Structures are given as C-alpha cells and as structure tokens.
Amino acid sequence: MTEAEWLAATDTAPMLEFLRPTASERKLRLFACACCRLKWVLFTDEASRAAVAVAEKYADGNATRHELKKVRRAAWDSWRFPKPLAAWHAADLRAWEGACAAAESIAPRMGSDRDEEGMKVECSILRRIIGNPFRPVSFSREWLTPTVTALAAEAYASRDFSSLPILADALEDAGCQQQELLEHCRQPGEHVRGCWVCDLVLGKA
Q1: What is the pLDDT of residues 29-51, one digit of tens each?
Q2: ∠ CA(174), CA(180), CA(184), 5° rounding?
Q3: Other beta carbons within 10 Å of 65
Q4: What are the domain boundaries of the chain?
C-alpha cells in the first residue's frame, strides 16, 4: 500500500492487511470497539455493551484475559440475528482478527448488503487511530505541560473529544509547530479512543 492509497482508501480490509505486521494490539482492539460504537444503538443488550467496554479496558491493561473471555461468551449467548456480531469480535483475544471481523460486521463489504458509506466512516476512524504510517510525527516531551496532559487524559477517559481544538491551542502554546498534529485536533468528525494525538500525549502505543 502506498501513502496515496492509505489516504484515499474507502475499505479498511487492505488498510488492516497493511497494518498487520506493525500495528499494536491495543490500537487494533480499540478500532474494533470504535466500529461497535458506530452502531451503538443496535447493541441494546447489556452483554454486548459489556463486551465492548471490557475489550476497551483490556486494551489498556485494565481487564484480564479471563474477564475478556467471559464477556465474549456472554455476548455470543445474547446474540440474535440481525444484530451485528461486532461486540463478540471486539472481545476476540486475537486483536487483528477481531478488528477485521468487527469492521466487516458493522459495514459489510460483499454482496447486496455492501455498506460503502459505512466503510468510508470506518476508514476515517482507522486513520484517526493510526495517523499516517508513512509520515510518523515526532513528539517532544517539552510540550507536555499540565494543561496538555490534563486535556488529553480527560478526553480519553470521558470519550468526549470535543476539547481537542483546545488541546491544539495548548500544544501551540507549549511550542508545538507540528501542523499535521495540530490540524488533526482541529478536524471535525468522529474522534475515538486510540486517537493518535492523544496517544502521543499520554504515551500510549
């Protein structure tokens, strides 16, 4: 995959295949969870929602393998067609396989149910989690002021990323001139846990 293909992709399948050797399990798992939250209204049962919540905790080391397996079994037991199986996939111990399957479950890629608009949204979210792998952004610890750290931590914990433009201002005040980083914070649209800028600030991989 080339940089131009990455930036223009409208299907996550080749993007995920490209990322397979390099992306962290954490980011892949958070992408699977973000896919679920795109159609959160469909997950009306507690078991499916718990599977996503525990998968997010597991990604950050705050849940055990046993807990993840337990909620995954419960999500399977509660599954009824036509509800997506994405929550079950998000709790897969195999992060890459879970990410691929969750994306496919939320926005089907084959046959008459192909969801092209949903696929585009998933691609946008994956880029917001990974960034541009062809142009990694360097980050200076000198920019880690208390305000910068607090804004990123609060956005991550609350899953409310509306303060990211303010985070961009705080980074600028701290001396950051990385335009790709600042522009990402100021972009409209969906931001999710795993956001590459918040991860840089918080030291997450």
Answers
A1: 999 999 999 999 999 999 999 99
A2: 90
A3: 9
A4: 3-130, 141-202
Q: Which residues contact 2 (CB under 8 A, 6 or more apart)?
A: 134
- Tens of pLDDT, residue by residue over 98-140, are 999 999 999 998 777 789 999 999 999 999 999 999 999 999 9
Contact 191, 124 (CB under 8 A): no
Measured distance CA(165)–CA(44) in Å, rounded: 32
Q: In the structure encoding, which two tokens stand for residue 174, read together?
A: 């701290």
Q: How far is 76 from 181, CA to CA, in rounded Å?
A: 39
Helix (H, G, I), strand (E, B) or coil at 177: coil
* Rounded distance between C-alpha atoms, residue 31 and residue 98, angstroms: 9
Global pTM exceeds 0.70: yes
The angle at the Cα of 49, spanning 48 to 51, to the nearest 5 degrees, equals 65
In this structure, how many other beta carbons lie within 10 angstroms of the beta carbon of residue 158? 10
153-180 residue pLDDT tens: 999 999 999 999 999 999 999 999 999 9
Helix, strand, coil percentages (3-state) for the chain, rounded to 5, are: 65, 0, 35
